[in-house]
Write a structure and sequence with these properties.
Helix content is 44%, strand content 23%. The chain is of the alpha/beta class. The strands form 3 sheets. It has a 6-stranded antiparallel beta sheet with strand order 2-1-4-5-6-7, with helices on one face. A hairpin with a 2-residue loop joins strand 14 (349-355) and strand 15. The longest helix has 44 residues, at 169-212. It is globular.
Length: 361
Amino acid sequence: MIIKKLFLHNFRNYEDETFSFTDGVNVLFGKNAQGKTNCAEAVFYLCTGSSLRIRHDRQLIRTGCDCASVRAEAVNRYGSIVLEAEIYENRRELRVNGNKIARAVDLLGNMNSVFFSPGELRLIQDGPDERRRFLNLSISQTSRNYCTALLRYQRILDQRNMLLKERDVSLVLETLPVWDEQLVRYAAVIIRHRREYLSLLSPLAQEAHAYLTDGAEELLLTTDRDYEGTEEEISARLSAELVASYDRDLRLGFTTAGPHRDDVKILIDGKDAKGYASQGQTRTAALSMKLAEVEIFRRLSGEPPVLILDDVMSELDLPRRKKLLSRAEGLQCILTCTHAERVLYGTETNKIRIAGGKIVP
Protein backbone atom coordinates (compact mmCIF):
# COMPACT_ATOMS: atom_id res chain seq x y z
CA MET A 1 0.00 0.00 0.00
CA ILE A 2 1.50 3.30 -1.14
CA ILE A 3 -0.08 6.76 -0.92
CA LYS A 4 1.12 8.86 -3.84
CA LYS A 5 -0.68 12.15 -3.18
CA LEU A 6 -2.81 13.60 -0.42
CA PHE A 7 -5.05 16.63 -1.01
CA LEU A 8 -6.42 18.66 1.91
CA HIS A 9 -9.03 21.40 1.56
CA ASN A 10 -10.21 23.33 4.63
CA PHE A 11 -9.14 20.39 6.79
CA ARG A 12 -8.08 21.45 10.29
CA ASN A 13 -5.62 24.33 9.78
CA TYR A 14 -5.01 23.58 6.08
CA GLU A 15 -6.66 25.72 3.41
CA ASP A 16 -5.40 23.99 0.24
CA GLU A 17 -2.33 21.77 0.23
CA THR A 18 -1.10 18.82 -1.82
CA PHE A 19 1.37 16.35 -0.32
CA SER A 20 3.51 14.10 -2.52
CA PHE A 21 4.72 10.98 -0.72
CA THR A 22 7.35 8.41 -1.65
CA ASP A 23 7.28 4.69 -0.88
CA GLY A 24 9.82 4.95 1.98
CA VAL A 25 10.01 7.25 4.99
CA ASN A 26 8.20 10.58 4.60
CA VAL A 27 9.08 13.12 7.28
CA LEU A 28 6.72 15.96 8.15
CA PHE A 29 8.76 18.35 10.27
CA GLY A 30 8.44 21.83 11.72
CA LYS A 31 7.67 23.60 14.97
CA ASN A 32 4.89 22.45 17.25
CA ALA A 33 1.24 23.29 16.42
CA GLN A 34 1.89 23.85 12.68
CA GLY A 35 -0.25 21.02 11.27
CA LYS A 36 2.00 17.95 11.09
CA THR A 37 -0.34 15.75 13.11
CA ASN A 38 -3.34 17.08 11.17
CA CYS A 39 -1.87 15.68 7.96
CA ALA A 40 -1.21 12.31 9.60
CA GLU A 41 -4.76 12.35 10.96
CA ALA A 42 -6.17 12.91 7.45
CA VAL A 43 -4.42 9.76 6.20
CA PHE A 44 -5.82 7.68 9.05
CA TYR A 45 -9.29 9.14 8.51
CA LEU A 46 -9.34 7.99 4.89
CA CYS A 47 -8.23 4.52 5.96
CA THR A 48 -10.77 4.00 8.73
CA GLY A 49 -13.48 6.65 8.39
CA SER A 50 -12.68 7.87 11.89
CA SER A 51 -10.19 9.95 13.83
CA LEU A 52 -8.33 8.98 16.98
CA ARG A 53 -8.41 12.57 18.21
CA ILE A 54 -12.01 13.83 18.05
CA ARG A 55 -15.59 12.68 18.65
CA HIS A 56 -17.40 14.67 15.96
CA ASP A 57 -16.33 15.01 12.33
CA ARG A 58 -17.30 18.68 12.26
CA GLN A 59 -14.24 19.36 14.43
CA LEU A 60 -12.14 18.53 11.35
CA ILE A 61 -13.52 21.52 9.39
CA ARG A 62 -11.29 24.58 9.25
CA THR A 63 -12.53 27.42 11.44
CA GLY A 64 -14.95 29.67 9.55
CA CYS A 65 -15.62 27.16 6.75
CA ASP A 66 -18.72 25.11 5.90
CA CYS A 67 -17.03 21.89 4.80
CA ALA A 68 -13.69 20.11 4.47
CA SER A 69 -12.43 17.58 1.97
CA VAL A 70 -9.66 14.98 1.97
CA ARG A 71 -8.54 12.96 -1.04
CA ALA A 72 -5.79 10.39 -1.48
CA GLU A 73 -4.41 8.84 -4.65
CA ALA A 74 -2.88 5.49 -3.74
CA VAL A 75 -1.78 2.15 -5.11
CA ASN A 76 -2.68 -1.17 -3.49
CA ARG A 77 -2.18 -4.75 -4.63
CA TYR A 78 -5.15 -4.44 -7.00
CA GLY A 79 -3.97 -1.24 -8.69
CA SER A 80 -4.68 2.48 -8.40
CA ILE A 81 -7.34 3.71 -6.01
CA VAL A 82 -8.74 7.11 -5.05
CA LEU A 83 -10.37 7.67 -1.65
CA GLU A 84 -12.32 10.83 -0.86
CA ALA A 85 -14.19 12.30 2.09
CA GLU A 86 -16.28 15.46 2.13
CA ILE A 87 -17.11 16.53 5.66
CA TYR A 88 -20.00 18.85 6.51
CA GLU A 89 -21.45 20.14 9.77
CA ASN A 90 -23.85 17.22 10.27
CA ARG A 91 -22.98 14.72 7.56
CA ARG A 92 -20.25 13.45 5.28
CA GLU A 93 -19.86 11.83 1.87
CA LEU A 94 -17.34 9.07 1.22
CA ARG A 95 -16.20 7.93 -2.24
CA VAL A 96 -14.04 5.13 -3.56
CA ASN A 97 -12.82 5.66 -7.13
CA GLY A 98 -15.49 8.33 -7.58
CA ASN A 99 -18.33 6.07 -6.45
CA LYS A 100 -20.28 7.25 -3.42
CA ILE A 101 -20.51 4.63 -0.68
CA ALA A 102 -23.45 4.51 1.68
CA ARG A 103 -21.72 2.73 4.56
CA ALA A 104 -18.45 3.58 6.28
CA VAL A 105 -17.71 -0.15 6.48
CA ASP A 106 -17.20 -0.13 2.69
CA LEU A 107 -14.27 2.26 3.16
CA LEU A 108 -12.38 -0.24 5.31
CA GLY A 109 -9.72 -2.42 3.73
CA ASN A 110 -9.11 -0.19 0.71
CA MET A 111 -6.15 1.46 2.42
CA ASN A 112 -4.82 0.14 5.74
CA SER A 113 -2.80 2.10 8.25
CA VAL A 114 -1.29 1.75 11.71
CA PHE A 115 -1.16 4.94 13.78
CA PHE A 116 1.17 5.42 16.74
CA SER A 117 1.61 8.55 18.84
CA PRO A 118 2.41 9.31 22.49
CA GLY A 119 -1.35 9.38 23.05
CA GLU A 120 -1.45 5.66 22.30
CA LEU A 121 0.03 5.03 25.74
CA ARG A 122 -3.63 5.05 26.77
CA LEU A 123 -3.69 1.55 25.34
CA ILE A 124 -1.71 0.40 28.38
CA GLN A 125 -2.53 2.99 31.03
CA ASP A 126 -6.28 3.52 30.67
CA GLY A 127 -9.28 1.26 31.16
CA PRO A 128 -10.67 -1.59 29.03
CA ASP A 129 -12.41 0.83 26.62
CA GLU A 130 -9.04 1.77 25.10
CA ARG A 131 -7.98 -1.82 24.51
CA ARG A 132 -11.34 -2.71 22.99
CA ARG A 133 -11.05 0.36 20.76
CA PHE A 134 -7.65 -0.86 19.57
CA LEU A 135 -9.04 -4.31 18.76
CA ASN A 136 -12.14 -2.94 17.05
CA LEU A 137 -10.22 -0.54 14.78
CA SER A 138 -7.53 -3.05 13.90
CA ILE A 139 -9.78 -6.05 13.22
CA SER A 140 -12.30 -3.94 11.29
CA GLN A 141 -9.62 -2.93 8.77
CA THR A 142 -9.08 -6.59 7.84
CA SER A 143 -12.62 -7.96 8.33
CA ARG A 144 -15.79 -6.22 7.19
CA ASN A 145 -17.71 -9.13 8.71
CA TYR A 146 -16.36 -8.13 12.12
CA CYS A 147 -17.14 -4.47 11.58
CA THR A 148 -20.71 -5.24 10.50
CA ALA A 149 -21.25 -7.53 13.51
CA LEU A 150 -19.82 -4.85 15.82
CA LEU A 151 -22.18 -2.16 14.48
CA ARG A 152 -25.22 -4.41 14.74
CA TYR A 153 -24.23 -5.59 18.21
CA GLN A 154 -23.94 -1.99 19.41
CA ARG A 155 -27.36 -1.05 18.02
CA ILE A 156 -29.02 -4.03 19.72
CA LEU A 157 -27.11 -3.35 22.93
CA ASP A 158 -28.38 0.25 22.94
CA GLN A 159 -31.97 -1.00 22.53
CA ARG A 160 -31.51 -3.53 25.33
CA ASN A 161 -30.10 -0.89 27.65
CA MET A 162 -33.04 1.42 26.91
CA LEU A 163 -35.41 -1.44 27.75
CA LEU A 164 -33.66 -2.03 31.09
CA LYS A 165 -34.56 1.52 32.14
CA GLU A 166 -38.30 0.84 31.75
CA ARG A 167 -40.31 0.94 34.99
CA ASP A 168 -42.58 -1.96 33.98
CA VAL A 169 -40.44 -4.89 35.14
CA SER A 170 -42.81 -7.55 33.82
CA LEU A 171 -42.67 -6.00 30.34
CA VAL A 172 -38.86 -5.88 30.52
CA LEU A 173 -38.56 -9.54 31.54
CA GLU A 174 -40.97 -10.54 28.79
CA THR A 175 -39.05 -8.62 26.09
CA LEU A 176 -35.43 -9.24 27.09
CA PRO A 177 -35.19 -12.74 25.54
CA VAL A 178 -36.05 -11.26 22.13
CA TRP A 179 -33.10 -8.86 22.30
CA ASP A 180 -30.83 -11.48 23.85
CA GLU A 181 -31.32 -13.85 20.93
CA GLN A 182 -30.08 -11.22 18.48
CA LEU A 183 -27.36 -9.91 20.77
CA VAL A 184 -25.60 -13.24 21.33
CA ARG A 185 -25.53 -14.00 17.60
CA TYR A 186 -23.38 -10.96 16.85
CA ALA A 187 -21.49 -11.24 20.13
CA ALA A 188 -20.25 -14.68 19.13
CA VAL A 189 -18.87 -13.31 15.85
CA ILE A 190 -17.06 -10.52 17.71
CA ILE A 191 -15.60 -12.90 20.29
CA ARG A 192 -14.40 -15.39 17.68
CA HIS A 193 -12.64 -12.70 15.64
CA ARG A 194 -11.00 -11.21 18.74
CA ARG A 195 -9.82 -14.63 19.86
CA GLU A 196 -8.26 -15.35 16.46
CA TYR A 197 -6.71 -11.87 16.25
CA LEU A 198 -5.13 -12.09 19.70
CA SER A 199 -3.69 -15.51 18.86
CA LEU A 200 -1.77 -13.73 16.07
CA LEU A 201 -1.06 -10.50 17.93
CA SER A 202 0.40 -11.88 21.15
CA PRO A 203 3.42 -13.78 19.72
CA LEU A 204 4.17 -11.02 17.22
CA ALA A 205 4.06 -8.36 19.95
CA GLN A 206 6.22 -10.58 22.14
CA GLU A 207 8.82 -10.86 19.37
CA ALA A 208 8.78 -7.10 18.64
CA HIS A 209 9.13 -6.32 22.35
CA ALA A 210 12.09 -8.69 22.70
CA TYR A 211 13.73 -6.96 19.72
CA LEU A 212 13.22 -3.45 21.13
CA THR A 213 14.43 -4.40 24.61
CA ASP A 214 17.22 -6.78 23.56
CA GLY A 215 15.35 -9.59 25.29
CA ALA A 216 15.47 -7.89 28.69
CA GLU A 217 11.71 -8.21 29.24
CA GLU A 218 8.86 -10.46 28.15
CA LEU A 219 5.52 -9.10 26.92
CA LEU A 220 2.40 -11.25 27.05
CA LEU A 221 -1.14 -10.42 25.85
CA THR A 222 -4.11 -12.47 27.02
CA THR A 223 -7.86 -12.01 27.34
CA ASP A 224 -9.45 -11.60 30.74
CA ARG A 225 -12.08 -14.16 29.72
CA ASP A 226 -11.52 -17.51 28.05
CA TYR A 227 -14.10 -18.23 25.33
CA GLU A 228 -13.80 -21.70 23.89
CA GLY A 229 -15.79 -23.53 21.25
CA THR A 230 -17.76 -22.63 18.14
CA GLU A 231 -19.90 -19.56 17.64
CA GLU A 232 -22.97 -21.63 18.55
CA GLU A 233 -21.36 -22.73 21.83
CA ILE A 234 -20.28 -19.18 22.61
CA SER A 235 -23.83 -17.95 21.90
CA ALA A 236 -25.30 -20.55 24.26
CA ARG A 237 -22.88 -19.59 27.04
CA LEU A 238 -23.62 -15.88 26.62
CA SER A 239 -27.38 -16.52 26.63
CA ALA A 240 -27.06 -18.24 29.99
CA GLU A 241 -24.90 -15.39 31.34
CA LEU A 242 -27.43 -12.78 30.21
CA VAL A 243 -30.29 -14.62 31.92
CA ALA A 244 -28.23 -14.97 35.09
CA SER A 245 -27.57 -11.21 35.01
CA TYR A 246 -31.23 -10.10 34.71
CA ASP A 247 -31.54 -8.95 38.34
CA ARG A 248 -28.24 -7.06 38.26
CA ASP A 249 -28.97 -5.51 34.84
CA LEU A 250 -32.40 -4.31 36.02
CA ARG A 251 -30.88 -2.82 39.15
CA LEU A 252 -28.08 -1.01 37.28
CA GLY A 253 -30.02 -0.15 34.12
CA PHE A 254 -27.49 -1.52 31.62
CA THR A 255 -26.16 -4.81 30.24
CA THR A 256 -23.33 -6.22 32.35
CA ALA A 257 -22.39 -9.30 30.28
CA GLY A 258 -20.98 -9.52 26.78
CA PRO A 259 -17.91 -8.59 24.71
CA HIS A 260 -18.50 -4.87 25.36
CA ARG A 261 -17.23 -5.61 28.90
CA ASP A 262 -14.20 -7.73 27.98
CA ASP A 263 -10.58 -6.65 28.36
CA VAL A 264 -7.07 -7.58 27.22
CA LYS A 265 -4.47 -8.21 29.89
CA ILE A 266 -1.03 -6.80 29.08
CA LEU A 267 1.74 -8.35 31.15
CA ILE A 268 5.43 -7.44 31.32
CA ASP A 269 7.50 -10.14 32.99
CA GLY A 270 4.27 -11.56 34.39
CA LYS A 271 3.08 -8.29 35.98
CA ASP A 272 0.12 -6.19 34.92
CA ALA A 273 1.62 -3.37 32.83
CA LYS A 274 -1.13 -0.94 33.84
CA GLY A 275 -0.15 -1.07 37.49
CA TYR A 276 3.57 -1.77 37.36
CA ALA A 277 5.11 -0.49 34.11
CA SER A 278 7.25 2.64 34.02
CA GLN A 279 6.66 5.30 31.37
CA GLY A 280 9.44 3.83 29.23
CA GLN A 281 8.11 0.27 29.61
CA THR A 282 4.61 1.45 28.75
CA ARG A 283 5.83 3.20 25.62
CA THR A 284 7.80 0.15 24.46
CA ALA A 285 4.89 -2.24 25.10
CA ALA A 286 2.44 -0.05 23.17
CA LEU A 287 4.90 0.33 20.29
CA SER A 288 5.44 -3.45 20.22
CA MET A 289 1.70 -3.97 19.85
CA LYS A 290 1.60 -1.51 16.96
CA LEU A 291 4.53 -3.19 15.20
CA ALA A 292 2.73 -6.51 15.63
CA GLU A 293 -0.35 -4.92 14.09
CA VAL A 294 1.73 -3.96 11.04
CA GLU A 295 2.79 -7.57 10.55
CA ILE A 296 -0.77 -8.85 10.95
CA PHE A 297 -1.98 -6.50 8.21
CA ARG A 298 0.85 -7.68 6.00
CA ARG A 299 -0.16 -11.31 6.51
CA LEU A 300 -3.93 -10.95 6.28
CA SER A 301 -4.19 -8.43 3.44
CA GLY A 302 -1.11 -9.50 1.48
CA GLU A 303 0.57 -6.09 1.67
CA PRO A 304 1.99 -3.84 4.40
CA PRO A 305 -0.07 -0.94 5.76
CA VAL A 306 0.98 2.69 5.89
CA LEU A 307 2.81 3.22 9.18
CA ILE A 308 2.09 6.59 10.81
CA LEU A 309 4.48 7.63 13.58
CA ASP A 310 3.34 10.90 15.12
CA ASP A 311 5.93 12.60 17.33
CA VAL A 312 7.28 9.26 18.51
CA MET A 313 11.04 9.60 18.01
CA SER A 314 11.53 12.28 20.65
CA GLU A 315 10.09 9.86 23.22
CA LEU A 316 12.58 7.06 22.47
CA ASP A 317 16.25 6.67 23.32
CA LEU A 318 18.82 6.39 20.53
CA PRO A 319 19.00 2.56 20.30
CA ARG A 320 15.22 2.21 20.08
CA ARG A 321 14.93 4.96 17.49
CA LYS A 322 17.36 3.07 15.28
CA LYS A 323 15.54 -0.21 15.85
CA LEU A 324 12.20 1.37 15.02
CA LEU A 325 13.59 2.81 11.78
CA SER A 326 14.94 -0.62 10.85
CA ARG A 327 11.44 -2.06 11.36
CA ALA A 328 10.03 0.61 9.04
CA GLU A 329 12.14 -0.65 6.13
CA GLY A 330 9.94 -1.94 3.33
CA LEU A 331 6.98 0.15 4.56
CA GLN A 332 5.64 3.49 3.55
CA CYS A 333 6.06 5.50 6.74
CA ILE A 334 4.71 8.96 7.54
CA LEU A 335 6.69 10.35 10.45
CA THR A 336 6.20 13.68 12.20
CA CYS A 337 8.86 15.43 14.27
CA THR A 338 10.21 18.87 15.11
CA HIS A 339 13.82 18.33 13.98
CA ALA A 340 14.29 15.80 11.20
CA GLU A 341 18.07 15.58 11.42
CA ARG A 342 18.02 14.66 15.10
CA VAL A 343 15.89 11.54 14.67
CA LEU A 344 16.80 10.08 11.27
CA TYR A 345 20.58 9.50 11.45
CA GLY A 346 21.23 9.58 7.74
CA THR A 347 18.14 7.57 6.75
CA GLU A 348 17.08 8.43 3.19
CA THR A 349 13.77 10.22 3.44
CA ASN A 350 11.28 12.51 1.71
CA LYS A 351 11.30 15.61 3.92
CA ILE A 352 8.32 17.98 3.97
CA ARG A 353 8.51 21.11 6.11
CA ILE A 354 5.23 22.39 7.57
CA ALA A 355 4.60 25.90 8.91
CA GLY A 356 1.22 27.42 9.67
CA GLY A 357 -0.74 24.77 7.79
CA LYS A 358 1.36 25.15 4.64
CA ILE A 359 4.16 23.26 2.92
CA VAL A 360 7.20 25.54 2.81
CA PRO A 361 10.69 25.17 1.25
